[in-house]
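Researcher: We're teaching a course module on how sequence relates to structure. For the next exercise, students receive a sequence and then see the predicted structure as tokens, so they can try to spot secondary structure elements on their own. Here is the exercise chain.
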Amino acid sequence: MKRPDARLERVLATLAILIIGLISLANVVVRYVTDASFAFTEEFSVFLLVLLTFAGASVALRRHRHIRIGLLERALPPAARRVLILFQGLCGLIVLGLIAWFGAKLAWQEYQWETLSPGLGLPQWWYLVWLPLLAVLMLWRQCQQTFERLRGGLDDES
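Model: And here is the predicted structure for the students to work with:
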């Protein structure tokens, strides 16, 4: 059976960690040579770490690799297991839906207020708009995972 994939999120996570590594290395070299450092590295690194976290969590969700306890699922009869899987999926959808909703609301407010980032003075919404977008991607992955588990795929031991 082919493993489920989240290619877009894998690419985003790979780019984020690559850029974090490159700007951190460049900052160390510049600081060593000139006793000064780049101003943008911390602000960009924090943003990229958040992007990396959400993209990586989305990949883990799609591949059924999130930490969880399957003891109860394995102990239940098939009908009750399906109810538990639906409950788990619904809980995930609620949490991710709230993140997407409030993240979008926050990004919109920052856009309206024209808030600038403290370090570089860039529009703050540039950083925040990724939160609801990645939460919506995770919502999609949650739905995919729940439907596949209800069809009998993605068991605990795979």
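Model: If you want an answer key for the exercise: The chain has six helices and no strands. The two ends are 10 Å apart (CA to CA).
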